[in-house]
Amino acid sequence: MVDSGARTPSRRFAALLAAIPLVAVLLADGALLVRRSTDGTPSHPVAIPSVRPTATRTAQGERPDLASGRAVAIRALLARRSQAVLHHDRKEWMSTVDPEQRKFRKQQSQLFANLHDVPFASWFYSFGSEAPQLPSNRSRRYGVPSWAPAEFALHYRLRGFDHRPTNLAQFPTFVHRSSGWYLASLSDFTDAGAKSSKDLWDFGPVTIVRTSSVLVLGHPGSESLMQGLAAEVAADIPRVTAVWGHGWARKAVVLAPSTQHELGQVAGDFGKLDNIAAVASAEVNVGSGKPDPVGDRIGINPDNWLKLSPLGQRIVLTHELTHVATRAVTSSSTPTWLAEGFADYVGYLDTGVPASFVAQELAADINAGNAPKQLPSDAQFDGASKKLSQAYEGAWLACRLIAQRSGQPMLVRFYSAVGRSERGPRLAVALALARLLHESRFEFTKQWREFVRSELS
Hints:
Helix content: 25-40%
Distance between the termini: 61 Å
CATH architecture of the domain at 64-198: Roll
CATH topology of the domain at 64-198: Nuclear Transport Factor 2, Chain: A
Largest sheet: 7 strands, mixed
CATH class of the domain at 64-198: Alpha Beta
Shape: elongated
Number of strands: 14
Strand order of the largest sheet: 3-2-13-14-12-11-10
Radius of gyration: 24 Å
């Protein structure tokens, strides 16, 4: 199946690792932007500033009579690739790859083998047939007519877990030879900033561990780790449900890459991951007026995961599952302190870890006479912030304050009310405080400052 479509930004969250003796984990999530979309029918890609599409709509060196049939031919080629994946037909898959590109053919042959055990319910592509091409300097090397669409995506759905297809932005080059059109590259424009998205199968054969509620994807040799992840996530799903309720899928897809570098490539985060234990991601249509998530994934950083105690692993996975559960009502109206504070609240709930231990950095600031005056701003959750830990600790205590004073169900109602608001974060919070907690933001902030002092002094 081939369609034309768009990609929209998503929010991603990451649990950061710190050296804490008891649980060896400090939860601190970073919101990232990724070039992904919400369904299988996108229409326009996210802009890539470093790429300047050419004005021409005709493939490089292409005769006008070829241009008229190009879209039809490439749709047919992509449909064959889709069917090859779903029916495990290697010959058909390889028939779509340029016979002149030996290295690329070898890569595509290995990629196809890597896909064998992944339970795909669907696999298809979309592209804008009338979209401008990406810069053609690189594609001239083929010596034949070529076409590199600026709008292109792979869409796939995992059976039993994805209710709609999730998307990977790609930047292919197609070439026309005497026998027809072929796929020649997925990396011609990497240097220009148009880098094709990757998934676990781009790094090696994929093996799976599956339960009724958890699907773990990893690589051969990591089965023991994967089984442990599946068991822990299955145990943590009821913990999240006990707080949030049954209004979510109560299922999870977990990725267990072999290296930290692989996690960075799959997660789309190319910053430092040295302190990250896990990331949770989804595609959220931020332009639709309300959240519409699809493609929830939890990715494990193998370099740090085994450094965590069993309790630390439980806290991290419960935290990340909370993001999965709340995604449908986590919107642009939700301030970061509420999204991360609530995930921490659920993650630490019933662990027995004292507040003074969880919020050590904030406690140190208070003892030094530097108590916070305002709720953490979104900027404080930036990975480069020197007060990152304090931001997460303060956010956790804000949610804990609401739960202790007004009850856990009220905290859930508050979270939902803010996320469903059509206002900006500050006004959305103010309205929810007034309607549900019957107080102003000023009053709540004052009570939070007092609560922080009482919990940590």
